C-alpha cells in the first residue's frame, strides 16, 4: 500500500518527468542566441544563468575604470554588462550582472583559472601578458541558456560555466601536468573606481571551503554580498595580496598574512588558491551567493547544489529555460525571426532577479534581515523602462512572478524611511535613477487585472503615499502648481508627463477599491499634463514657477529643454491615459497624423544625439527614437487618429529594421528586457500602450501563429492568415469568431484564452 505522502511524491515526480519530456520535445532554448546585442554598449551577456536567477555567471572582457585622469571615462559605458563582443581578451568570470542597463554596478567575485607564473592583476588589453587575463577566440566560445564555455588560449584551459538560481558552477579542464591556480579577484567590479570597495573579508574554512563577503559603494551605495566557495579537490596552498595601504592593522602584524594565513581582510585584495595537478586535470568550483550571511550562502549552496554533476546542472538549467520559453510558442516566416523572438524572451526573463536565500531571508532596504512571508523577494527594478512593456508581458505569461515582484516593491516601501516605492532599485538599495514613480503602474496593472496576490489596500496606501512625498524630484511643486517648474527642476516636462500618467493609475486602483476621495484627487492630478502644453508653440513646453513658458526653446533638443532621453517631438506625445485629448490639443486627427508622419520622416542633425551615450543612429527612424523607451508607444498612436494601417506599417518596419540575429542586433540598451518585451508584444500583434487600462492596441503581427500560455492553464492562440513579408496590413481581426470593430482588444476578452485571428493583406 502506498502511503499518501509517498503517493504525492510519486505524482510530483511523474509531473516533473512529464514536464521534462515536454521540454525535451520542444527545445526552445536552441532558438536563443545570447550574443545578440553584445557588440554594442554591453547590452546583454552570453553567460550562464537560469530564469530570474540571482547568479548570472559571465565572462568579463575588461576592467575599465569609471574615473580616468580626474574625469568620467566615457568608454566604461560600453561595459555595463561586463562583456564586449569585439574584445580579444577575457579577464575572468564574475557572478552578478545587469542585462542591458544604461548605468552599471555589480560584477562581483571574479574568478580566473591560470597556470604558470602567479599574477594577481588583470593587466591590460594592449599588454595581456602583464596580468592574468587571457586571449580567446569566438571560434572556441559557446553560449546557450544556462551554459557558457570558452578556451582560454594563454593557459590552454577549457572553461565551462553553468548555474542555479543562487550558485555558480565552474568547470575548468587544465593541460596535463601544469600547475593549477584559481585567482579570486575581489577588487574587480563593473563601473569600478578607486574606493568603490568599502571592505572585503575572506576565510579559508578548511581545505575545500572558503567564505567571505564584500561591501561596495557604487550605484548601490551600501551593498553587501556574501559568498561560499567550495572546490572538488583540496587546496594545496593559498594566499593573497593587498592593493590598498592600511593605515591601521592592529596586532595582525605579528602574522605573515600573505601566504597560507586563513583570514584575509582589506579594501582591495586578490586571493589565490593552488591545487595539485596529480589529482586530475579537471577542477570544479561551486560559488554561492547570499545577501544575508556566509551561513546563508552555505545553505544556498547545500540546498541548490549538493552534488558535483556538472552535466546535470546544465540539463536542469536548460529545462528551466525551456519551460519558461515554452510559455509562448511561435511559428515564423524565417528561422532568424524565431531566433530573435526567443532571444527576446530570454532577455526578458533575466531580470528582475530572485533576492533571498532558500529559507526566505533577505536583506531589506533598511539593511536589516527580513523574511519574505508568502512571496518570493526580487530585486533589480529598472522601472522607468520596464513598466511600459516588460511587466505587462509578465502579466500575460509570468503573472505569479509579477505579483511577487510587486509585493517586493511594497516590502521596499515598508522598509523605506522616506517612504516611497522603488524608483530604480537593486540589492537592498534605492539608487533614484530616472524619473517618475513607476512601481505604481506595475502594481496598478496587476490589480486591475485581478492578478495581485497581496493586500490591495496596503498596495494602494503605498502608491498614494509615494505620490505625496513632496521631497522627491519636484513633487511638492507639482502638487501645488499642477506642473514641475523648469526653473527649479531639470527634465521638468518629462517629470510632469510621467507623474500625470502614474497618478492616473493610482486613480484606477482607488476607484476599484471604493476610495473615492483618492480617486477624485488622482484623477485631477492625471490631467496635469495639460499644464505643460503651450498652445503658441504647439508643444509640451518647459514652464517656470511663475507660469510663464520658457522663451529659449528648441523642440528638437533634449538638454536644457525640460526633457530627459527625449525631446518635445517624441516625449511630448506621452499622454497614454488620454490619447484622444492629446490629439485634440495637437489640432485634431488629421494634424496628428501629419505630426506622426513627420516624426518618422524628418531628418535629425547629429548635433542632437552627440551627447547621448545610449542612442546611436541605429536606433533612430527620422526623429522617432526606438533605441530609448519614452517613444515605444508612438507607432500605435496612429490607431487613435483613425489610421490603423499606418500603425501596421510602422510596427512591421521597426520589427524588421531595429532587431536582428546579429551581435549588433539591438538598436539601444535592452534595459532589463524592455526593448525585448516591445518586440514580443509587437510580433504577436498587440501592445499595452496604457498599462492599467486593460486595453491593448492592435498592430501587425510578425508571427505566422502563436500559442500564449496564460495563468490557469489557459491559452491565447494567435493566427495570421496570409502572413507574408509584403502583407503588413490587416484586412480584418476576429476574436473567437467575432469581428473586432476597433483596432484594440481588452484583457477581459483574452484573459480566459481564445483565438485571435489577423487576416493579412498587402
Q: What is the fold named in CATH at topology level of the domain at 32-323?
A: Beta-galactosidase, Chain A, domain 5
Report the structural category.
alpha+beta
Strand order of the largest sheet: 8-9-10-11-19-15-14-13-17
Largest sheet entry: 9 strands, antiparallel
Overall mean pLDDT stands at: 94
Number of strands: 39
Number of helices: 17
Shape: globular
Distance between the termini: 66 Å
- Percent helix, as a range, is 25-40%
Beta-strand share of residues:
15-25%
Task: Using the 3D structure, state the CATH architecture of the domain at 32-323.
Answer: Distorted Sandwich
Specify the CATH class of the domain at 32-323: Mainly Beta
Report Rg. 26 Å
Which parts are unreliable, with pLDDT below 50 for 5 consecutive residues or more? 1-24
Describe the structure.
There is one protein chain. The chain has 762 residues and is of the alpha+beta class. α4 packs across α16, α8 (439-448) runs antiparallel to α9 (456-467) and α9 (456-467) runs antiparallel to α11 (492-512). β22 and β23 (369-371) form a beta hairpin. The termini are far apart. Mean pLDDT is 94; it is low at 1-24. The protein contains 17 helices and 39 strands. 26% of the residues lie in helices and 22% in strands. 55% of the residues are buried. The protein is globular and about 80 Å long. It has a domain at 32-323: Beta-galactosidase, Chain A, domain 5. The strands form twelve sheets. It has a nine-stranded antiparallel beta sheet with strand order 8-9-10-11-19-15-14-13-17. Strands 20-34-35-39-36-37 form a six-stranded mixed beta sheet, covered by helices on one side. Strands 6-12-18-16 form a four-stranded antiparallel beta sheet, with no helix packed on it.
Amino acid at each position: 500500500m502506498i502511503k499518501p505522502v509517498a503517493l504525492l511524491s510519486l505524482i510530483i515526480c511523474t509531473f516533473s518527468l512529464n514536464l521534462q519530456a515536454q521540454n525535451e520535445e520542444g527545445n526552445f532554448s536552441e532558438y536563443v542566441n545570447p550574443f545578440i546585442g553584445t557588440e554594442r554598449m554591453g547590452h546583454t551577456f552570453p553567460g550562464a544563468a537560469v530564469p530570474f536567477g540571482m547568479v548570472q555567471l559571465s565572462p568579463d572582457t575588461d576592467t575599465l575604470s569609471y574615473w580616468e585622469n580626474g574625469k568620467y571615462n566615457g568608454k566604461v559605458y560600453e561595459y555595463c554588462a561586463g562583456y564586449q563582443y569585439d574584445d580579444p581578451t577575457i579577464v575572468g568570470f564574475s557572478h552578478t550582472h545587469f542585462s542591458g542597463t544604461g548605468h552599471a554596478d555589480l560584477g562581483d567575485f571574479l574568478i580566473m583559472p591560470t597556470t604558470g607564473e602567479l599574477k594577481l592583476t588583470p593587466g591590460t588589453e594592449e599588454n595581456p601578458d602583464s596580468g592574468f587575463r587571457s586571449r580567446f577566440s569566438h571560434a572556441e566560445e559557446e553560449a546557450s541558456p544556462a551554459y557558457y564555455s570558452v578556451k582560454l588560449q594563454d593557459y590552454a584551459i577549457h572553461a565551462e560555466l553553468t548555474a542555479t538560481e543562487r550558485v555558480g558552477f565552474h568547470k575548468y579542464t587544465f593541460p596535463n601536468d601544469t600547475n593549477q591556480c584559481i585567482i579570486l579577484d575581489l577588487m574587480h567590479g563593473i563601473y569600478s573606481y578607486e574606493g568603490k570597495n568599502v571592505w572585503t573579508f575572506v576565510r579559508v574554512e578548511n581545505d575545500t571551503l572558503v567564505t567571505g563577503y564584500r561591501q561596495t559603494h557604487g550605484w548601490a551605495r551600501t551593498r553587501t554580498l556574501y559568498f561560499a566557495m567550495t572546490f572538488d579537490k583540496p587546496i594545496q596552498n593559498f594566499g593573497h595580496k593587498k592593493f590598498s595601504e592600511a593605515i591601521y592593522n592592529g596586532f595582525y602584524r605579528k602574522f605573515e598574512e600573505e601566504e597560507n594565513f586563513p583570514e584575509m581582510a582589506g579594501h582591495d585584495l586578490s586571493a589565490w588558491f593552488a591545487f595539485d595537478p596529480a589529482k586530475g586535470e579537471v577542477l570544479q568550483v561551486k560559488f554561492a551567493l547570499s545577501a544575508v550571511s556566509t551561513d546563508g550562502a552555505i545553505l544556498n549552496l547545500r540546498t541548490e547544489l549538493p552534488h558535483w554533476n556538472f552535466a546535470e546542472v546544465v540539463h536542469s538549467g536548460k529545462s528551466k529555460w525551456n519551460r519558461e520559453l515554452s510559455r509562448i510558442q511561435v511559428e515564423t516566416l524565417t528561422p532568424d525571426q524565431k531566433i530573435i523572438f526567443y532571444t527576446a524572451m530570454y532577455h526578458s526573463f533575466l531580470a528582475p532577479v530572485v533576492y533571498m536565500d532558500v529559507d526566505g531571508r533577505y536583506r531589506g532596504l533598511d539593511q536589516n534581515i527580513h523574511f519574505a512571508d508568502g512571496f518570493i523577494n526580487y530585486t533589480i527594478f529598472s522601472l522607468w523602462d520596464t513598466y511600459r512593456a516588460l511587466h505587462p508581458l509578465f502579466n500575460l505569461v509570468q503573472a505569479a512572478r509579477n505579483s511577487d515582484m510587486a509585493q517586493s516593491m511594497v516590502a521596499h516601501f515598508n522598509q523605506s524611511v522616506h517612504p516611497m516605492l522603488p524608483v530604480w532599485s537593486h540589492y537592498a538599495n534605492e539608487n533614484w535613477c530616472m524619473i517618475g514613480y513607476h512601481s505604481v503602474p506595475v502594481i496598478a496593472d496587476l490589480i486591475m487585472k485581478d492578478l495581485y496576490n497581496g493586500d490591495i489596500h496596503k498596495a494602494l496606501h503605498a502608491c498614494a503615499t509615494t505620490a505625496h512625498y513632496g521631497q522627491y524630484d519636484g513633487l511638492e511643486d507639482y502638487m501645488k502648481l499642477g506642473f514641475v517648474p523648469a526653473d527649479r527642476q531639470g527634465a521638468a516636462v518629462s517629470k510632469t508627463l510621467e507623474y500625470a500618467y502614474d497618478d492616473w493609475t493610482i486613480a484606477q486602483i482607488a476607484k476599484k477599491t471604493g476610495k473615492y476621495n483618492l480617486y477624485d484627487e488622482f484623477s485631477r492630478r492625471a490631467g496635469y499634463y495639460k499644464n505643460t502644453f503651450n498652445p503658441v508653440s504647439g508643444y509640451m513646453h518647459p514652464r517656470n514657477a511663475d507660469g510663464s513658458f520658457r522663451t529659449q526653446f528648441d523642440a528638437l533638443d533634449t538638454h536644457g529643454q525640460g526633457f530627459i532621453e527625449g525631446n518635445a517631438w517624441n516625449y511630448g506625445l506621452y499622454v497614454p491615459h488620454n490619447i484622444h485629448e492629446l490629439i485634440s490639443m495637437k489640432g485634431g486627427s488629421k494634424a496628428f497624423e501629419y505630426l506622426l508622419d513627420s516624426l518618422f520622416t524628418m531628418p535629425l542633425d547629429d548635433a542632437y544625439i552627440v551627447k547621448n551615450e545610449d542612442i546611436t543612429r541605429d536606433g533612430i527612424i527620422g526623429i522617432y527614437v526606438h533605441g530609448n523607451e519614452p517613444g515605444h508607444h508612438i507607432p500605435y498612436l496612429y490607431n487613435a487618429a483613425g489610421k490603423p494601417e499606418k500603425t501596421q506599417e510602422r510596427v512591421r518596419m521597426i520589427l524588421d529594421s531595429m532587431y536582428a540575429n546579429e551581435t549588433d542586433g539591438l538598436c539601444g540598451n535592452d534595459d532589463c528586457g524592455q526593448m525585448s518585451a516591445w518586440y514580443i508584444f509587437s510580433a504577436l500583434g498587440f501592445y499595452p500602450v496604457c498599462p492599467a487600462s486593460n486595453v491593448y492596441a492592435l498592430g501587425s503581427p510578425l508571427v505566422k501563429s502563436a500559442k500564449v500560455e496564460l495563468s490557469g492553464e489557459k491559452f491565447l492562440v494567435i493566427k495570421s492568415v496570409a502572413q507574408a513579408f509584403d502583407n503588413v496590413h490587416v484586412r480584418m481581426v476576429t476574436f473567437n469568431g467575432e469581428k473586432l470593430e476597433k483596432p484594440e482588444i481588452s484583457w477581459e476578452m483574452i484573459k480566459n484564452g481564445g483565438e485571435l485571428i489577423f487576416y493579412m493583406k498587402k
